[in-house]
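Slide 14.
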Amino acid sequence: MNTAAGVIIEVEGEPGQCDRFEKELPYAIPAPGRIETQSVNAVTPLGETDFRIESSVQGERSVTPIPPDVAVCRDCVRELLDPANRRYLYPFTTCTLCGPRFTVVRSFPYDRERTSMADFTMCPDCSREYATPDDRRFHSQTNSCSVCGPRVTLVDPEGNALHGDPIRETIALLKAGQILGIKGIGGFHLACDASNEKAVALLRQRKGRAEKPFAVMVRDLETVKQYCLVNGAEEILLTSAVAPIVLLEAQGKMLAEGVAPLMGTLGVMLPYTPLHHLLFNHPAIRKNDCPEALVMTSGNRSEEPIVRSDDEALDRLSDLVDAFLLHDREIVLRADDSIFRVIAGQPTVFRRSRGLVPGGFSWAAPSSESDARCKSDPSSVVILGAGGDLKNALAVIKGDQVVPGPHVGDLASPVAQDYFKQSVEVLTGYLEAVPGVIAVDPHPEYFSNSLAREAEIPVEEVFHHYAHAVSLLFQERLSGPALFAVFDGTGYGTDGTIWGGEFLIADRSTFSRAGHLELFALPGGEAAIREPVRILAGLLADDGVLPEKFFPLMGECKDRVKFWLEALKKGLNCPMTSSAGRLFDAAAAAVGYTRSVTYEGQAAMWLEGMAAKEEDGEYPVRCTHRGKTLVVDSSALILSVARDMLNATQPGIASARFHNSMARAVVQTVGHLAERTGIRVVGLTGGCFQNKILTERTKALLDANGFHVLLHGTIPPNDGGIAIGQAVAARSRRNGRVS
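Slide 15: predicted structure.
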């Protein structure tokens, strides 16, 4: 029986049988099901001999009872392509092991009548499957077939139905170079043939997405291996029930250059719905006439949330597409595709959404009396983590559950800000959680801060880089203290300046800044983020003047350098920062990236993509003491890169040396801090540690020096994870104050 708190299983038999059942149950549950916690109690035998599922019982929820959306299973795909099966070519076939879950739920508990599948009455055949205990579709809440279930339609941008079989016509349009809006599980995708350069360029033009890489859906695993290197861990991710986008090293056959311009990686996923499988492998169409790889980018305008409803798509996407492939099953909750990368052999989530949400974490109570007391206290205050303004995702702590919300995205647009508010309502409503505290980033200009404060609930401020550190402590079930390198693009510091290259000593409730990268200027402020060569000029300047020898590194910007440096000398719109992300941008400019940045992290990703993998050279790292604070000389590192390039060093060699030097800077700094504090646990966190080379080389050096290294895995290292850190820090501080 489903209840609001979980599942109740009542078993009757001889004592030995019951013991065996209890021991074997966890291993008998098919993926992706699992038991997080359980309790066992003796009850009076009733003499029953049959098996049944009782009606669900509603009540107060202590945990989130909804499973995440699951990729279509092999058995359902086999039926989909079998002409003798009654679900042949049915694009919504599911069973108890697969299909949409979270995205179709309207209320709790998770039963059909409380999902958008309630709009479809099961036919006699589906009803019989649903009621038969040994059937694969027994109590499958999304069970349906072509007689009684959802249907697809193909319409033009104005919503007028187009003639012909919708899926076959969609395939023909895609092969002809058209752009389609395709309704999926958690929202719409914008799709086109990934091998068609004109189609990809047209999609970029219409969406206003200059160069940011597109995600690609590829026919099958063997086809992926024709385009990318795939190791064992990556293969497991690609074929998992989550079916995420996985960042892979591009090698072999080439897709259209516009799919991921200037990048050495591809974001790849496999088909995860029956509809996707038909698009790539329709039995009635020759294989060569079906697409091999499709761009499948989020169906939205740049920097807006993914579109979920037909009306919303027709309103917001009609000028981007040539046709829409729609279906009449309501998407209740949005969910973008999740994104992973394997780093140091470990799957690392970059975006936590479809297939993962609303799966939560149990509160990891450290061995402190106050936390243990809080865990057992059912009246413990509910805490909402509001996240940041980039890669926003919320988090709620209720009782001993920490539940992240789905990816919201960047909060720059009014549409995204409205979605942020809706996400707060959805996450707290579904958990029946009324926040007593909201944890926010103290940045005074963050929308997430001001929007959260509108709720007029007590606010707990948690500084940005500290939230990164706490999220990693929480993931690893540690209380701290630990040493942290927190490297990212930007974050509000305790002194009101822009941080981003920080060394912290932190536990779950307190932190101190023990070191940082030397401050450097951003000539022109935000303009320097768009033009990294400005940062390079500032770092190489000597008393406001760029030495003549460095002008060849300025590219086409030579004539503007003197204006930037004059402003720098006068202190006009040249904020100072310790940002590791901006330092990577400057290194990229020195190595040859003198163009404009069109999306966050572009220059640094380009720098990583060109690094020579076998190069182990380093530049000297200067680390000085300023009182109790350690400072890494940023200018010296960039000066070394610049000199290397002027000496005709290959860009890939210089890039690798810079990565190696940044890794060395971490090891040298935490080595000094370890000597002072005795702490040997080091966490690597922040968006810069999405960089595979930086992370793996830093970890290798730390391992060699005997440190215990913490890396992100189930919680993103980027800003998508800070809401968890905010909420955990707020809970831990509150516990400390209570005790």
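Speaker note: The chain has 22 helices and 28 strands.
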